[in-house]
Amino acid sequence: MNKFEALGLGEAIIKAVNDMGFETPSEVQEKAIPILLNEDTDIVALAQTGTGKTAAFGFPLIEKVDNKSRITQGLILSPTRELCLQITNELKNYSKHVPGLHTVAIYGGASITDQAKQIKRGAQIIVATPGRMQDMINRKLVDISNIGYCILDEADEMLNMGFYEDINAILSHTPKDKNTWLFSATMPKEVSTIAKRFMSTPIEITVGHKNTGSKNVSHEYYVVNSRDRYAALKRLSDANPDIFSVVFCRTKRDTQKVAENLIEDGYNAAALHGDLSQNQRDLVMKSFRNRQIQMLVATDVAARGIDVDDVTHVINYQLPDEIETYTHRSGRTGRAGKSGVSMVIVSKSEVRKIKSVERIIKKNFEKKEIPSGEEICQVQLFHLASDIGKAEINHEIDSYLPSINEVLEEFSKEELIKKFFSVEFSRFHNYYKKSRDLNAIGSDREGNSRNNDGSTRYFINVGEKDGFDWMTLKDFLKDVLSLGSDSLSRVDVKESFSFFNTNAEHQELVLSVFENFKMEGRKVNVEISKDSGRRGGRRRRDDGGGYKGKRRSNDFKPKGKKRFGSNEDRGSGGNQRRDRRKRSDRR
C-alpha cells in the first residue's frame, strides 16, 4: 500500500501520487495532511524550502473543494510569479483525476484580461501574487467573498518583500469563518503578527527547529578583500568543475553585472531578477533546469520560484540584509535527500555576521580558504582524468586507429599521457601560475591573525566517490594518523580526490603512514601539494583566476579584469526593504 493512503487521501489523489512516483510522504506532509483533512482549523506550518509544503496543503485543499461548483473556494497567496506558476502546475498535476476542478494563476507580467476570463469560466482554486490579486479585487474582476480556505505560502518572504498591507487588504475581502493555512520556512515577528491577527487558535506544526537549516546542507565561509569578491566567486566555481549552482546577490543591479561578467569570462551563467520579462524568466529557468546554465545568478525574490533538486552549491556572493533570508537561500540545495553546500563570500568587516547566522540556523560554519591557482590546476586535471575514465568508447573511431597509431608510434604510453593532458593543462596552468592569494589576511572570526605558513598541504586520491565528505574524511585521517582535530585543517573533498592540511611537524608521519596504505585493496596515495604554503609576494592587479574547463579554444585569453571595488559591500538596511521604490531593486 502506498504510504500516502494511510494519511486519508482519496482515490483520485492517490492515483495522481502513483502517476508521479511519490511513495513516502515527507515529514511536513505526514504531520499536516491528516490534520487539514479531518479538522476545520487554522494551521501554522514551519518547514524548510524543498520539504514538500505544496503537497502538504495542496492535497487537502483539492480534497475539500467542491469540483461541481464553479465559485472560487480556495485562495493561495505566494510571493513571486515563478512560485505562483510552480504551485499552479503542481496543483494541476495533483488534481488531474478530479474532473471539473480548475486552478488559475494570477500574477503580474501577463494579461490581466486573460486571467479574468479564466476566473469567470470557473476557478475553484486561485493561486496569486499579492500585488496582482489586489489589483484584480480593486477592479472587481475576482470574488473571494465565499472562499473557505486561504493559504499563505512562503509567508515570511511575502512580508519581507513588503506585502503586509496587500495581504491585509486581500484578507479583508474574505469571510471570517474561513480556514487560514500559513506555511513558512522561518518565523520572524512579522509572521507571528499576521498569525495572531488573522487566525483563530491555530495548530502549529514544526519540522525540525524554527529557522533552522536543512541537515543535508554544509555551510562554509570565505574571507576576502572586498575588491576580490568576484575573483573569489570564479575561483570557487573553478575548484568545483561539476558545479550546478545558484549565486545570490542583494540587488538586481549586482545580479545583472555579475552574470554578465561570468558570461564574458566563459562561464555558463545567466541572471534571474525582476527586471526580466516573464518570457525571459521562463527561458532562463528552462535552461537552468536542463543544466544548460551552471551558474544562475539571482536576487532573493526571483529565486523563490526555483524548484530544482540537483543544485550542488548555493553561493552567497553577498550576505542578505535579513539573516532569516539565508535559510531560504541555503534551502535551494540539499533537496530531495541529496547533500549540498552553501558558501558565503564575506569581507573582514562582515565576518561577525556569520555568528549571527549560526545562531539563527543552529548550524556551524566551517571557515575555508579560497583555493590557490595550483590547487585549481590539480582539481581541473584530475577531473579531466576522471571524465576520461568514465567516457564510453565510440567504436566508430576504430577505422581511424591505424593512422593515429602511425602518427604516435614513436611515443611511449607515459609520453602520450603527458602530451594529452598537457593540451588542456597548459592553458589554465599558464593562466593561474602567477595568480595571487585571495584570502584576506589579518582577521578571522575570533579576530586573531591567520597563520599562513605553519602547515603542510597534501593531496590524497580518495573523494566523494569513495563515500567521503569533509567531515568523514577528517575523521578517517584522525583515526589513521592518530592526530587530534586541531592538527588537521582545510579538508576539501572533490569527486575522486581531496586536499587536507596538517601542522608542518607532522609531515614525516603523514607520508610514512600512507607510503604503502591500502583501503579495501586499493592503494591510497598521499603527496605534498605543490602549493603547500601560501605565497605572498608582490600583489598583482589580476583577478585571481577564472578558467572554465569547458573552454576549448586554442586562442584562450582569460578575461575578468573588471572590478566592482567597494560596491560589493553596498547593501540596504531593513528600512529600505519596506520602501516600495527601493524594494523594487531586490527583485
From TrEMBL:
Stretches assigned to the Helicase ATP-binding domain: 34-205
**Under which EC number(s) is this enzyme classified?**
3.6.4.13
Q: Which GO terms describe its cellular component?
A: cytosol; ribosome
Q: Which PROSITE patterns match?
A: DEAD_ATP_HELICASE (PS00039), HELICASE_ATP_BIND_1 (PS51192), HELICASE_CTER (PS51194), Q_MOTIF (PS51195)
- Pfam families given in the database record: DbpA, DEAD, Helicase_C
Domain Helicase C-terminal, chain residue ranges per copy: 216-376
What is the name of this protein? RNA helicase
- Give the organism, scientific name: Aquimarina algiphila
Q: What is the lineage of its organism?
A: Bacteria, Pseudomonadati, Bacteroidota, Flavobacteriia, Flavobacteriales
